[in-house]
Amino acid sequence: MPARIYPSTAVAVALLLLLVCQAAADSVSGAAPDSHSTVASAEALASVHRSGAPHVLASAVAQQAASPGPGEHHLGSRPRRPCATEAGQAPLSLSSPSAFMASSLTPTFWWGTATAAYQVEGYTTANGRGASIWDTFSATPGKTYNGESGEKADEFYKRYPADIKLMQSLGVRHFRMSVAWPRILPKGTGTVNQAGVNFYVTLVDALKAADIQPYVTLYHWDLPQTLQDSYGGWGSSRIVNDFAAYADVVFKALGSRVTYWTTFNEPWSFCFMGNANGQHAPGLTDRAVAWNCAYHVLLAHAAAVKKFRAAVPGGKIGMNINSDWSEPFSSSSQDQAAADRKVEFMAGIFGDPLYLGDWPASVKQRVPNLPTITSDQARDIKGSTDYFALNHYTTLYVKDAPGAYGLEGLLDASASANGPEGLVGPQADSSWLYTVPWGIRKMLNWVNNRYHPGEIYVTENGCDVPGESGLALPEALNDTFRVNFYQGYVQAAAQAAAYDGVPLKGYFAWSLLDNFEWADGYAKRFGIVYVDYSTQARYVKRSARYLANLFGTVGSA
Ligand code: GBH
């Protein structure tokens, strides 16, 4: 039995499960994305809701409650559950989805698309923007693919009105975006650049006028270069007050317009890839700096949240925590403990202090000179998020391996895509990304069981398609690999909600647009919309139509 059932979410998610099953027929059969069959599946669902809803939904929810859910940290992978329609429901009849769209279910589940300032905006010197560590890093030979940078990116800075119309045409009602610190404070501190503030105010107002709710991240990796130069950026405790002051400027400018916020996107990624293996800006290779970064992120988060409570009453704030799922390679207790450690060294580095008040015990045992979270600091950090924001992409198998190191340091564990029965899942274009739908269900259960956060949003999930950059446009737009990825992950996430009682409230696809993929430049495409970088033209991929049908019918307030 799930620990708790959230009735409205459970009902919406039951519908989502039904719809994924319906939509699956389209993606598997290879029908055109906007063909009658997809529309028909949406209409069928609408009909279920209006006529047979109470019965069908009640049985779906009852089935969830009765179904054995993970409930524990580790489970063997299980066969996909049958769709409700496969499980003996009456055939669905067709009718208009509009009644469904207007129904009381629509406020319960968000779907949205996600972006980040440096990856999409371009215009990196316009209107007083200062340099960020990503401008500098990209300009350093050998650091990014082909020396590419975010200088042009998707020109979202100017093209956002058309991109908002595009989102409207897809029925996107939630949009995750980030604010570029060096647009607001070109030198990181001091004088506010009003033109930068105005850009985000105008953007947010344009989104709202289009009935798209902005979901704002304060820091998606573009630290003002001045702060890196003057004191070492996230390696120094001086960053804490500077970040809180920056956050306060943004809270005051956008707080009356935006309800949902996050302070940091993926601090694991920017602390460890930026400072331990040097693959991201600022390109340092000093693990001690990476751990100081993690510590200062937690302190800066807590300091910013204090400002937030005063400036944005009624607002909700979190932190986008990324984690791969770690599946034990075998059922041995050693491999299970190793897999636990691996997740603790990723999600737990930030999740444990935020929800439990200290670093995970496994981290404290293994990391030399780990900064101490004092009891005063713990008081501010613990309980400072209103919901859990999870960025999740992939899963690896983990073995006990005494003495083995990971990027974070001594893990006594090793991770690989090769499992006891072969590869964990189909590999995407990025070498680190494998399609493993069941991993998101387990990851969501881990978060829920360890932290009981009350609300969980998946704030990034998506993939690139093998070889996509080399494909001609028509082939790139027919992205069945990505459709299958989304179908699998959304279904598994919905199962976590419906069968396991995970309070999943929304889901953001990464990304709206192909964009600047950090060290991989423009070679990797994560968009559900294709961008031709020579013309800046946008082309809707099949995956966007798939998601639009899927989520549009379930509803999104
Ligand atoms: C996210 O990071 C970012 O938030 C987003 O900006 C980005 O565009 C998107 O996902 C797609 O990459 O083999 O040790 O080098 C993704 C999370 C975590 C993926 C670390 C790469 C590298 C593992 N990243 N992972 S390693």
From TrEMBL:
Region ranges (Disordered): 60-89
GO biological process, alphabetically ordered: carbohydrate metabolic process
Pfam families cross-referenced by the UniProt entry: Glyco_hydro_1
Signal peptide per UniProt: 1-25
Cited SUPFAM superfamilies: (Trans)glycosidases (SSF51445)
Keyword set includes Signal: yes
Alphabetical keyword list: Glycosidase, Hydrolase, Signal
Keyword Coiled coil: no
Molecular functions (GO terms): beta-glucosidase activity
Amino acid composition bias (Low complexity), ranges on this chain: 60-70
Stated family: Belongs to the glycosyl hydrolase 1 family.
Name of the protein in its database record: Beta-glucosidase
